[in-house]
Amino acid sequence: MNACETYSDEQLLSAIRNDDAQAFSEFVRRYWKKAYHITYSKVRSQSVTEEIVQDLFTTLWDKRATLSISNVDAFIFTCLRNKSINYIEAQLVRKKYWDYYKAFIPQQEESTRREVEFNELMQAVETCVETLPEKSRSVFRLSRLEGVPNREIAERLNLSEKAIEYHLTKSLKVIRLALKDFTLLLLVAFHL
């Protein structure tokens, strides 16, 4: 029997703060199933659920030195709700971009050509993003491609929310300008 199995949640968290890997393993064993069920009920995908739950516990371990959790159930529920919402928002953003792109393609086009054109557009976006300064590039990817909220980006990158908004505004101007010609070429190509 592992000594950590008898620990209360508070004792486990205290041990985890002191880099006790056994206590962390016990914490994961104790809460994995609950975390899995909470997440699966929101995203309805086994692989995505596993990824989100694993990310929760990885983040918990990475930030163990500064852990300040008074209610484990509330902490887990809140974290998983936020991560699930971020995932769902990212999927909606991708769908929105795909729907927007499909509007430019005549209905008689083959699906293969659609995919090729979409990939070209995404490559143009990626090429444009690569030209951005490092901070702006990171902020844009987190916000627009991964769907992470500005508040969380600010925390991750240790910047203010105003700085995040500045980088997004700057990035979007550059990308819109660069893609203006690309969009025009797509429109001309489809009307020929």
Automatic annotation (TrEMBL):
Pfam families: Sigma70_r2, Sigma70_r4_2. Residues 123-173 form the RNA polymerase sigma factor 70 region 4 type domain. It comes from the Bacteria. It comes from Dawidia cretensis. GO terms for biological process: DNA-templated transcription initiation. Residues 28-90 form the RNA polymerase sigma-70 region domain. GO terms for molecular function: DNA binding; sigma factor activity. This is RNA polymerase sigma-70 factor. Belongs to the sigma-70 factor family. ECF subfamily. Keywords: Sigma factor, Transcription, Transcription regulation.
